Amino acid sequence: MPATARPSGRVFFHATILAAMTRILWLLIETLGGLLAMTCLLRAWAHRQHLNPLNPLAQFVHAVTNWLIRPLQRWLRPTRTTDWASLVGALLFALLLSLMQPLLWSGRFPDLGETLLRAAFWLARSGIYLAMGLVVIQAILSWVNPHAPMAPAIRQLSEPLLAPFRRLIPAVGGVDLSPLALFVVLQILLILIDPAFLTGLLR
Known about the structure:
Elements (H helix, E strand, L loop, with lengths): L1 H47 L7 H18 L10 H23 L5 H33 L6 H18 L9 H15 L2 H8 L1
């Protein structure tokens, strides 16, 4: 009995290590892909808001994404309000993640419908996380250092998101509650676009 128990224990140990390594690898891939997708969305949003390309934030975003966006812009020329290449770049990262997840976890290629649905979920969540990040940074800068070099760019990017809430929610005691209201709405959207819901749809 001990002779048979030893190999099974060794197999269990190897399987545990393999599962842990797979989770770590997927965490790295998902984090990198998600950040790149968000950066492409930020570039598209900055273009829509006419952020000065000489702004440090714009320069950073362009430096991170130029390797992909510039080749795409040869075929997808930006208009005055829409940077199509940046949007397509974000979609490509979402599609890549949606292909790699089932391939990494179950060794299978997903069908087209599953891939597109996963990509739509990832893209929507990336956009929500980006909006949340802008709102949080704007709120922190407004309290801590409203004259920081990044403050004007963050304000320019976050104001269109906060303006509808400012029209509905008056300031209380001089405190602007619109960032809190927007943050709550974004959290609700994240709950509605939960990966568990996506898993249920694909069963």
